[in-house]
Amino acid sequence: MAFVVVLVVAVAVVVLVLRAAETGGAGGRRAPKRPRPQRAVRPIAPDDDPEFLRELERRARRDDGSPA
Known about the structure:
Blueprint: H1 2-22, H2 50-64
């Protein structure tokens, strides 16, 4: 019977140690995460934007019926 009690206590200690290690041991509080650096989004000039160029070509064909 004493073996079962020791086994239960040992399992409880292991669970508590694993939870403490998971949270960094800061009393249940996690360390704040650093924000990921964001890639700078450069504006695309209209003549570099393929979608803009496709739309421009589509409009030019629609206006006069011949390729631009």
